[in-house]
Amino acid sequence: MVVSPLKKWMLIALGSLSLGLGVLGIFLPLLPTTVFLLISAACYARSSKRLYDWLLNHKWFGPYIRNWREHKAIPQKSKIIILALLWGTLLVSGLFATDLTVIRFALLVVGAGVTIFITRMKTLTPDMVAES
Which domain covers residue 46, as residue numbers? Predict the structure, then answer.
């Protein structure tokens, strides 16, 4: 696939921005790490084989992308970490960052929505990984 130099650099920039947001998502529970890593992989696949290969073979990021691409699933440990960080952040925000009941209610609704979404996602099992 031949890509113009401008498009190539725009895709690399978008992929790198997305990767940065994905890294932030590891620490900020409302940012979806896997989604941003998948966007990075798609951008890199269309612009730089070297960056794409690096991302897929990265010690931390590669498994997220491969597990999602191959199984549309995330590990149980990741679900637990996501939900613990989510609710810890929402609790601290609700108690110390605002006095407004409507904001606290909004945080509760967002937390419930994300919790439902995460718990309904398929869980990666050891037999799925063994098949890969």
Answer: 5-71
